[in-house]
Amino acid sequence: MNVVRVNSFFRDGLEDYKNSKIVICCGLDDAQNVSRGEWPGVVIHDTSKTPFLLRVDDQSVVWYEDDNFYTTTFGQREIRPAQLFTVDDQWVYEINSSYQYVNPDEPNTGSQIKRIVKVTAICIDVHRSTKNAFVLWCGLDDHGDVVDGDWMGYCDDDGVVLPVVVSVGNYSEVNYGEYGKRPTNFRSGKIGDFFTIKSGAEDEVRDIYKYEVKEQLVF
C-alpha cells in the first residue's frame, strides 16, 4: 500500500469558497483506489485549517466531530488528477495532484521522509481521570524524528474524538480547528519517547500534558 497526499481544490465558482482546498493523507492499492479505513484530512480556506477524518467503506464520510459529518464520493473511485468528487452532494472538488511520500522505485529523491507511520501516544499524567490518546499520521527521517510540515490525525479523549493538524517545525503546535491551537514539542516518533502538549497559548499556559509514544505502525 502506498500512502499519498491528495490535493484538491473547490471547483464551483462560489465566491465564498473560491480559496477552499482539501488535503487528504490516505493509502492507495495497486488500482489507485483508497484503502478502507480511517484517514486524516484538512480543509484549508484562506488561512484557516479545519481538520477532519475520512472514513472509507461502502460509503465514504467526512467526519469532523460528534454528529458533524458529511457523505462524500472521495474514495469511491480511483484517485487521479482531474478526478471530481463531492462533499454532502453539493460541494464539488477536483483533484489536482497526488504525491507519494515514499517511493521505493526512486529512493534518491532528496526527500527527508524515509517512511510514513501512524503513531499512537497515550497521556501518562496521573491527574488525568480519563484515557487520552493522540494518533498521528506522519513522515519520519532516518533518525525516527518527524519531518517538518503539517501532519494530520486525531485526539481521542475517552471516546470524544477531535481531528487535529500538527505543525512541526521550529515552533510546533496542535490545531484543533474551532477549538484553537496548543503548543507542543512533538518531534520523535520512536516508541518510548515523550512529548508534551500545553493547554492555553504560549504566554498563558494552564496545564502541560505529557504523552508517551506507545505504537508505531509503518505503512
Structural classification: mainly beta
Order of helices and strands: EEEEEEEEEEEEEEEE
Mean pLDDT: 86
| Uncertain residue segments | none
Q: Which strands sit side by side, in order, in the main sheet? A: 6-5-4-3-2-1-8-7
Number of strands: 16
Share in helix? under 10%
Number of helices: 0
Radius of gyration: 17 Å
Mass-distribution shape: globular
Portion of residues in beta strands equals over 45%
Largest sheet geometry: 8 strands, antiparallel
- Distance, first to last CA: 7 Å
When the domains are counted, the total is 2
Textual characterization of the structure:
This protein has no helices and 16 strands. It has 219 residues and is an all-beta fold. It has 2 domains: 2-100; 115-218. Strands 6-5-4-3-2-1-8-7 form an 8-stranded antiparallel beta sheet, with no helix packed on it. An 8-stranded antiparallel beta sheet has the order 14-13-12-11-10-9-16-15, with no helix packed on it. It is globular and about 45 Å long.
Could you outline the blueprint of secondary structure elements for this entry?
Blueprint: E1 2-10, E2 20-28, E3 37-45, E4 48-56, E5 60-65, E6 68-72, E7 84-87, E8 91-100, E9 115-123, E10 132-140, E11 149-157, E12 160-168, E13 172-175, E14 181-184, E15 194-199, E16 207-218
What keywords describe this structure?
single chain, 2 domains, 16 strands, 219 residues
Care to give the gist of this entry?
With 219 residues, the chain is mostly beta strands. Helix content is 0%, strand content 56%.
